[in-house]
Each structure stands twice: as C-alpha cells, then as structure tokens.
Amino acid sequence: MRAYFYDNSDSDPKEPHEQLTTVTPEELRNLGVLYWHFDGDNYLDKINNIAKERNYKNRDEINVSEEGLGDSYESKLKIFFQEHLHEDEEIRYILDGSGYFDVRDLLDRWIRIAVTKGDLIVLPAGIYHRFIVDTNNYLKAMRLFKEEPKWTPINRPADDNPHRLGYLQSLRDSGLYK
C-alpha cells in the first residue's frame, strides 16, 4: 500500500497522479482508515480473525474488469469513481490486481491509496471516497460486510447524512477535527 496526496488533475484517473507528499498509515488511521497486508497461504485465517473481531458476518467477491462486469464495466467504473459515502464500513481484501481508493482528509484534499494483492483496507462509514482500477484494468477483491451484502453509495453532497455526521463526531471525539 502506498498513500499520497492526489494531484486532482483532469487526466486519466487510472494513472497514479503521485505527488511527492506521502501519507503515513498513522495519518490514515487518524481518518479512520485501517490497513493490513497479508502475504502467503494463511491470509484467510488472518481475515477470519479480523472479521470476527470487527463483527463482519458476510462476504463475497467482485471482479472489477471487463471480463468480470461485462457490458456494465465502464458504467460501473463511473459509479465507483463518483465521490460518495456509505452508511456501513467498506471492507476490501485485494485478491489480485490493483487499483486506487481515494479518500478525503480533514482539509478536503484527496489522498490516493494504491492497493495491490494482499492489501486489506477498511474505510469508515461516512467518509467521502471513490475507487478506480489502475491502468491494468483489473482488480479482484473480497468484500466483507457486517450484515447482508449491500453496496449503496450516497453521492456527495451528503453532509447532513447521519453516518457522515457520526464520522465527523468520531474525529472530533478523537481531538483531530474541530
């Protein structure tokens, strides 16, 4: 996993858009974004342990590629890349391929998080974010859910959404956000 400030240019969003300013895992944790990397054959045991600790009850897999999504590939990518939030955590373990999760920091800047095989990322409910595959146009991920699988994006602006307000309150409670 690499994280850095995204330059937000109008060029291809599948390109890295990497700037010199990196973002540390601690800075991501301060935003509520959690990250692990699991290599090797026992990755499933580690995911199962995290699922038990965090009360994730369900899972499925998604293949974000032309082959996996068929005719809806381009339209799905546009939906994934539209800035949004969820009322549940977004949990993804990257089984294969690569892509980018972009999240907003406390100053409303984009942070790009490059993920590859073995990365597990948790985005908190209420954080503004978006997703795109990289130029390889392929990512296979395990999605974990606390309840029945659902993926309902709430596009920005959603500043009055209770989960957005709860997210901001959690940052205030931690002393990171005024």
UniProtKB/TrEMBL annotation:
Q: What does this protein do?
A: Catalyzes 2 different reactions between oxygen and the acireductone 1,2-dihydroxy-3-keto-5-methylthiopentene (DHK-MTPene) depending upon the metal bound in the active site. Fe-containing acireductone dioxygenase (Fe-ARD) produces formate and 2-keto-4-methylthiobutyrate (KMTB), the alpha-ketoacid precursor of methionine in the methionine recycle pathway. Ni-containing acireductone dioxygenase (Ni-ARD) produces methylthiopropionate, carbon monoxide and formate, and does not lie on the methionine recycle pathway.
In the UniProt record, what gene is named as encoding this protein? ADI1
The name under which this protein is listed is Acireductone dioxygenase
UniProt GO MF annotations: acireductone dioxygenase (Ni2+-requiring) activity; acireductone dioxygenase [iron(II)-requiring] activity; iron ion binding; nickel cation binding
| GO CC, alphabetical | cytoplasm; nucleus
- In terms of superkingdom, the source organism counts as Eukaryota
Which species expresses this protein natively? Glomus cerebriforme
List the InterPro entries hit by this protein, alphabetically.
ARD (IPR004313), ARD_euk (IPR027496), RmlC-like_jellyroll (IPR014710), RmlC_Cupin_sf (IPR011051)
Which cofactors does the annotated protein need, by name?
Answer: Fe(2+); Ni(2+)
| Residues holding Fe(2+) | 84, 86, 90, 129
Q: List the HAMAP family hit by this protein, alphabetically.
A: Salvage_MtnD_euk
EC number assigned by the record? 1.13.11.54, 1.13.11.53
Q: Which reaction does it catalyse?
A: 1,2-dihydroxy-5-(methylsulfanyl)pent-1-en-3-one + O2 = 3-(methylsulfanyl)propanoate + CO + formate + 2 H(+); 1,2-dihydroxy-5-(methylsulfanyl)pent-1-en-3-one + O2 = 4-methylsulfanyl-2-oxobutanoate + formate + 2 H(+)
Question: What does the entry's cofactor note say about binding and number?
Answer: Binds either 1 Fe or Ni cation per monomer. Iron-binding promotes an acireductone dioxygenase reaction producing 2-keto-4-methylthiobutyrate, while nickel-binding promotes an acireductone dioxygenase reaction producing 3-(methylsulfanyl)propanoate.
In Pfam terms, one family for this protein is ARD
Q: Where is this region: Disordered?
A: 1-21
Matching Gene3D superfamilies: Jelly Rolls
Supply the alphabetized keyword list: Amino-acid biosynthesis, Cytoplasm, Dioxygenase, Iron, Metal-binding, Methionine biosynthesis, Nickel, Nucleus, Oxidoreductase
The entry's localization annotation reads:
Cytoplasm; Nucleus
Name the family: Belongs to the acireductone dioxygenase (ARD) family.
Q: Which residues bind Ni(2+)?
A: 84, 86, 90, 129
Output one GO BP term: L-methionine salvage from methylthioadenosine
Which biological pathway? Amino-acid biosynthesis; L-methionine biosynthesis via salvage pathway; L-methionine from S-methyl-5-thio-alpha-D-ribose 1-phosphate: step 5/6
